[in-house]
Amino acid sequence: APVPGRVFEIGFGEGFELAELERRGWKISGVDFTDEGARMQNPDILDRVVVGDVFDVLDDLVKADAQFDLLICNNVLEHVPDPERLAESAAKLVTPEGVARFVVPNDGSVLQKAVVDAGAAPDQFWVRFPDHLNYFTTETAPLLLHAAGWEVVDVLGAFPIDFFLFNPETNYVLHPERGKPCHRARLAIENALAATGIDRLIQFRRGCAAAGIGRDVVVYARTRPE
User: Fold this and answer.
1) pLDDT value for 151
2) Which of 46, 91, 138, 145 has the most CB atoms lying inside 10 A of its own CB?
3) How far apart are CA 154 and CA 150, in angstroms?
4) Phi, psi (5° rounding) for residue 151?
5) Interhelix angle 83-91/140-147, nearest 10 degrees
6) In what order do the strands lie in the sheet with 6-10?
7) pLDDT value of position 3
8) Among residues 67, 145, 147, which one has the least CA distance to residue 103?
9) What is the percent of the chain with per-residue pLDDT over 70, rounded to a whole number?
10) pTM of the predicted model as reported, rounded to 2 decimal places
11) Model confidence at 1: pLDDT above 80
């Protein structure tokens, strides 16, 4: 994607990503159902973002022939009633040279099922209905995006923090107070990998996705030529 260019974030949340991209010279915009988080954390971005129904806003942008060089959609598809429709609309908003980054939880993974089989967590502990309406894996997330008109470029798995569930001393599902130390350990491990070169961290995450593990699925995609 042209750098810096125009970026649109679906579900901008507290606005940290847009604020950082603007600092780096990107022209920012985005949509979310509320701006409460951004109002508290990054109020300077509020005049460049929209609050409203994501489907209506995307439809309006498509009708206006809006185009972006980078589209970000982090932890949104699991919440909406029609994720394929959202992904289809988003595909019409990215330039041919642009790229999109989608992130969804990796739920019901082989690792999580092994945790249940080991008696270390309740059956289907990853289900969070009605907060999460849709559930994805490292295999199904790319398939949905392909069906919606995207060409998948890369698939990464976020750090498989589920590893900690096999150890009774670090099982944050049965003992939620142990979650923060696990999170700090995850950061230390990934920072150590990144310190030797970002390529090592990327290869690690690609390997996680290839093995079907990782707490989140990160998919990079381009619009597919018609």
Assistant:
1) 98
2) 145
3) 12
4) -105, 115
5) 60
6) 49-51, 27-32, 6-10, 68-74, 94-105, 216-223, 150-157
7) 78
8) 145
9) 99
10) 0.94
11) no
CA dihedral for 190, 8, 137, 109, sign (positive or negative)? positive
* Spatial separation of the C-alpha atoms in residues 62 and 87, rounded to whole Å: 12
- What is the pLDDT, as a whole number, of residue 225? 80
35-57 average pLDDT score: 97
**ω into 176 cis (within 30 of 0):** no
Report the pLDDT value the prediction gives residue 82, as an integer from 0 to 100.
97
45 pLDDT higher than 90: yes
Q: Which secondary-structure segment (H or E) carries 60?
A: helix 54-63
Spatial CB neighbours of 164, under 8 Å, sequence gap ≥ 6: 170, 171, 172, 178, 182, 185
Residues in the chain: 226
For residue 128, the number of C-alpha atoms closer than 13 Å in the C-beta half-sphere is 12
User: Quick check: helix, strand or coil at residue 76?
Assistant: coil
**What is the chain's Cα-based Rg?**
18
pLDDT at 7 over 80: yes
DSSP for 108-175 reads S-HHHHHHHHTTSS-TTTT--TTT----B-TTHHHHHHHHTTEEEEEEEE---GGGGGGSGGG-TTT-
Contact of 157 with 214, CB cutoff 8 Å: yes
The Cα–Cα gap between 162 and 120 comes to: 11
What's the mean pLDDT when you consider all of the chain? 96
Contact (CB, 8 A) for 8 and 29: yes
Rounded Cα–Cα distance for residues 53 and 217 (Å): 25
Nearest to 182 by CA among 193, 166, 196, 197: 166
